[in-house]
Amino acid sequence: MKPETLLQQLQHDPDFLKLTLAHPDFLPYASYALHNGTEVQIWDTGVIYFQPEQFGTQDIVLSSGVHGNETAPVELCSELLNKVLAGKLLLTERVLFLFGNPPAINAGVREIQDNLNRLFSGHHSKESGVQSAERERAKKLESYVLKFFNEAPQGLREPKLYDLHTAIRGSRFEKFAVYPFLHGKNWSKSQFEFLKACGANTVLLMQTPASTFSYFAAQSCNAHGFTIELGKARPFGQNDMSRFADAAAAFSALISGGELATTEFNEADFNLYEVRRSIDKTTEAFTLHFADNIENFTTFELGTVLASDASVEYKVEVEGEAIIFPNPKVAIGQRAMLMVKPVSVAGKVS
Ligand SMILES: [Zn+2]
Q1: pLDDT per residue over 175-218, tens digit each?
Q2: Domain holding 236: CATH number?
Q3: Catalytic: which of 158, 229, 264, 267?
Q4: How far is CA 242 from the centre of its chain?
Q5: Ligand 1 center to 155 CA (angstroms)
Q6: Residue 245 has what pLDDT?
């Protein structure tokens, strides 16, 4: 497709997700300006940059569809960005919208070959000679995010990346955020306040580096980066978007200078967890010993057998230990479940 054709199509039907899904592998670079002066640049399929005439100090990446079957965040972002394209929402910040994995979105699957959210911070190139569409995409997404942050004007900036997901299973707490490991830096009060405004007052604080998009943003871009789980994954058209209203309103306000429904940080308003241990699948014999409908953050009695692998049983080791992200279908060698426990951030937040 030629850039001119792309722009004609977008101006005729300002729906960037539609255009992305019609061309899931490639879109050429193209740029134009909206009537309100906002500059629009298409960097690739699923990658669109907006720079309003007047903008503040935040540089905001809104990412969705890193897992192709997690449709609610894709719909939420698509709605926001189409409002910007149609001139109905005037941005007050530079914003980069990303749809992570367009071929997987089209196929209605989490991934085509590789879990895209395990390939960042260089993990896309760790095994030499191994190639996949997701590895290529991870490499490109890293470069787009770096370009976006690096091309910000000089001065004090606030880089942010929110990678929006929905989980495979339900959750005791419908919305929750994963706060990547900060290598000992304090957690951010204002970010906790924003997460709560999104409806995500449950936060999992990570203690180790990861191969996720949000860790990449935090570690390599010095950004506030988060993975935000907005609910349960459902196919397109089957999402009850009213359940995402708080998050949609919060992101809309964030990028357009609207009023955010935040309240001053108070730890009592949050469910905070940290990872106690990560359970990896080491053989094909890996099995979970609880039902598929058991929700994230469920706790079990001490000693309950939760999973087994070829020669090992995983039991509840301490009171209050809860499961999260159990997935026996991951590839061998990958994380099949995290065990988390409640934690306080007193003295470690500013
Ligand atoms: Zn996901």
Answers
A1: 999 999 999 999 999 999 999 999 999 999 999 999 999 999 99
A2: 3.40.630.10
A3: 229
A4: 20
A5: 34
A6: 92
